[in-house]
From TrEMBL:
It comes from the Bacteria. Transmembrane segments: none annotated. This is Alpha/beta hydrolase. The keyword Oxidoreductase does not apply. Keywords: Hydrolase. Its EC number is 3.-.-.-. It comes from Flavobacterium magnesitis. One of its GO terms (molecular function) is hydrolase activity. Coiled coil: none annotated. InterPro entries: AB_hydrolase_fold (IPR029058), RBBP9/YdeN (IPR010662).
Length: 184
């Protein structure tokens, strides 16, 4: 089956050199959600842009969300028909409920929805992500019904992590695609 990979960046966008941008340039059938304000995100505005982008895609969608976008996707999934979503790779979720871990400009994405997702998903975190503890990421994965991967000490899995095409992430994505195929 043909899927569209939907790249959903978090705070500040995933620009040149970020693995999400590399995947966008490298993989066919890839689209990106573009937000009007990357640095002062408002949940309702971001939800509208995510929803509008999803509505333009004809094929089943595999979401590839990073950081703040993980909360965005879970909010969207609680409020909308998710039948077009084949699965989701939820990378480096930011704990928007923690003033210790995240900046104030993203707290309006709290509370993080805890309902089980209606599609296969994988949560990936790193053991030294400054925006969430491993325990919190694993808790969220359990609540969402997601598989959970801790990829070791690699920071926030962002541009600063220097992941390039992030081959490890591609392998986990392949695993997700296989599990989607098995669930059809």
């Amino acid at each position: 089956m043909k899927y569209t990979l939907l790249i959903v960046p978090g705070l500040g966008d995933s620009t040149t050199g970020h693995w999400q941008d590399n995947w966008l340039q490298h993989f066919p059938n890839t689209k990106k959600v573009v937000q009007d304000n990357w640095n002062q995100p408002q949940l309702q505005d971001w939800l509208s842009n995510l929803d509008a982008t999803i509505k333009t895609i004809e094929t089943p969608i595999v979401i590839v969300a990073h950081s703040l976008a993980v909360s965005l996707v879970t909010h969207w999934s609680q409020q909308n028909d998710t039948s077009k979503i084949a699965g989701a790779l939820l990378v480096a979720p930011a704990d928007v409920e923690s003033s210790e871990h995240t900046p104030e400009e993203i707290w309006n994405f709290a509370p993080i929805p805890l309902n089980q997702l209606k599609y296969p998903s994988i949560v990936i975190t790193s053991s030294n992500d400054p925006y969430i503890s491993v325990e919190r990421a694993e808790f969220l994965a359990q609540k969402w019904g997601s598989r959970f991967y801790n990829v070791g000490p690699k920071g926030h899995l962002n541009f600063a992590s220097q992941l390039g095409f992030w081959e490890e992430g591609q392998e986990i994505l392949k695993f997700l695609l296989l599990s989607i195929k098995e669930n059809q």
